Amino acid sequence: MKQDKMLAQMKAVTNAVYLREHAKVKPILDREAQLRGKLAMLKQQVEESRSLIDESHEMKTLGVDLQWQRWHTNARRDINQDLAQVTAQKFRAMDKLRHAFGRKHAVETMENQHKSDAKERRNKMLFDRLMNLD
């Protein structure tokens, strides 16, 4: 019975560690989605403004097209840098989550195997008792 308690405690601990690691991943995934949304929005703005800038001679004369291009390039670079950092964080967090899941799964498997072995031993003992009653 002591091993039952030990496995139950190990299961509780590994499950808690897994849930903690899982909770750490969600904000990272949310931030990644936010940055990817910003990139998509920036791309859409560039496509929408391209025809306006190409048709407007005043904007070209004042150099607005070059300023817009510079701003767009800098904004894209900044977002991509943030996205690279968040992606690296995500990979580290997912690696920790995989390890936590593996431990959790291993302990659950050990507990299930222990329960199965105990049930088999109990059934064998009961069968042996029944056979000795003759």
What's the structural blueprint in terms of helices and strands?
Layout: H1 2-55, H2 57-62, H3 64-132
Helix pairs in contact: 1-3
End-to-end distance: 31 Å
The CATH topology comes to: Helix Hairpins
> Any idea of the CATH class?
Mainly Alpha
Give the overall pLDDT as a whole number: 90
- How much of the sequence is in beta strands? under 5%
| Number of contiguous helices | 3
Number of individual domains = 1
Helix-residue proportion: over 70%
Question: In a nutshell, what does this entry contain?
Answer:
This protein has 134 residues and is an all-alpha fold. 96% of the residues lie in helices and 0% in strands.
Structure write-up:
This protein has a single domain, classed as Helix Hairpins (Orthogonal Bundle). The chain is about 95% helix and about 0% strand. It contains three helices and no strands. It is rod-shaped.
What key attributes describe this structure?
134 residues; mainly alpha; Helix Hairpins; 3 helices; rod-shaped; Flagellar FliJ protein
